[in-house]
What does this fold into?
Amino acid sequence: MKTIAQLSYIPLSTEDPREKVQELLEHLAQYDVKIEVGYMSTTIIGQPEVVFEVIEELYKTMTLETNRFRFHIELLSPLNE
It folds into this structure.
């Protein structure tokens, strides 16, 4: 089974939000998940435990590096392999 999560990160207190988003995308690349970058969100697909680890690590990273942000997480129905 693969879990699908659609993530939207919106930094609220930075002058160049694209830079912060790019940093998180680079951080995301280290995980064993399929990544689909869209205009307003990024979709990750992978084993459930990896997807939830990614979500937790991204949240911790955002908390350390950004004063104010929004982090929207949408979980879709799993894919059966």
Notes: The first strand starts at residue 2 and ends at 11. Residues 2-79 form a domain with the Alpha-Beta Plaits fold (CATH 3.30.70.930). The radius of gyration is 12 Å. The helical segments are 17-28, 48-65.
